[in-house]
Amino acid sequence: MSIGTSRSVAAVLAAFGLLAAGCGTASAPQGDPNAPLEVWTRSLDDTAKVYEKIFADFTARTGVKIDYKPVYNDFDKRMQERAASRDLPDLVITDVSALGVYQSQGMVTEVDRASFAGGADLVDRAWNNAKGSDGKYYGVPVSTQAQATFIRKDWREKLGKPVPTTWAELVDLAKAFTAGDPDGNGQSDTYGMLVPGSTDRGYLAWWASSYIWQAGGDILAEDNGKYRVAVDSPGTVAAVEWLRGMFCDSKVVQPGALTTITNDAHTFFEQGKAGIYLTGPYMMGRFDKAPGKDKYEVIASPKGPSGSTVLGEGENMYLMAGSARPADQKKLAEFMVSPDAQKAGMQGVPRPVVRLPVNSKVDVSAVYNDPRWNTVAEVYAEDARPFPNVPNFQPFRQQTAETLNALFARCGSDIRAELGKLAANLNKELKSQGMAK
């Protein structure tokens, strides 16, 4: 069963029988206390190799063995299966967006920030990624990042276009990339905007959220710790109208955009089929190989009507409930945020597992020696924001993605009316999670 539905948190918990029984607690440890720590990360092969080196270093220093399991496909489903069987891994590294679900289902133990070794060296913004809706901490931040705009520099320069700084200039560049034959092959086979528009895991809402914020809109707006639905606000409507124009009017997005998941989207930029991509900085290592480091540039997102806000995310390490090894859980988490482990994670090839360090003692410029990462760090510090801190944001992201997907697929549909329907559904979800103002 996928968590990416509009079901309430209570329904999800009931489905797995966790409301009554829980999935194990720190006071009721399960498993062999002498067995290796079982650690999961949401990883493909390239990033798994980076984690393997870090965990090997931890074992060499402490003698604590690690049973490492990189998982990518069906990660959330497999984690829920383990929760239902009350046999969770000892530790998990995955997106900050998992925190609300894990907390609500009793899958994670609380982290005492005050007694966490090295915790004072972690930046507050990173710690906030591990804070639950009740103000307590249920994870340890290990990496942060902000989205940036990747542009085919060689195409832009060939067509005599400036680096875009506004939405208008961004669309103008996208049109030029689509119609101006920037690769010079004499064929109409290039596109401006690369969009991971699938509804899978809410990808389209993940991509569109930055543009919604840049127009002054929102999905949920916070007000003194509570939230109100803002997906039908004037700013959101304006953003959706602008975004749909790229699908329906200027037609500058890649073919099949509305069924493209992120892993498939990357290949369009990599293979020279699309020239503008709002994505995470972790893609730089891959794109440095193809299309090539000299062929593209990384810039802060061009300004919309209300600014340049972009999605700022990251990964947490979660100390899972039911472990027989709470002391070793904490020991590994403390090691993961140490300067040595942070630097090792940043030096992963082709992709780092620590994008921006959470440890204030690690210098981004010194480790990367790459001005593009300085740009990302500046964007994170000045313009990045996370998704709302509600118990489970996934239903909001999923339903928003589904509505946007339908609006972009049906060019004549009524944006205001459809966003109004979405707002009504999201308001029900917000009330069910007890977070409505």
TrEMBL record:
The name this protein goes by in its record: ABC transporter substrate-binding protein
One Pfam family from the record: SBP_bac_1
CDD domains: PBP2_TMBP_like (cd13585)
Region forming the signal peptide: 1-20
Taxonomy, superkingdom: Bacteria
Record keywords: Cell membrane, Lipoprotein, Membrane, Palmitate, Signal
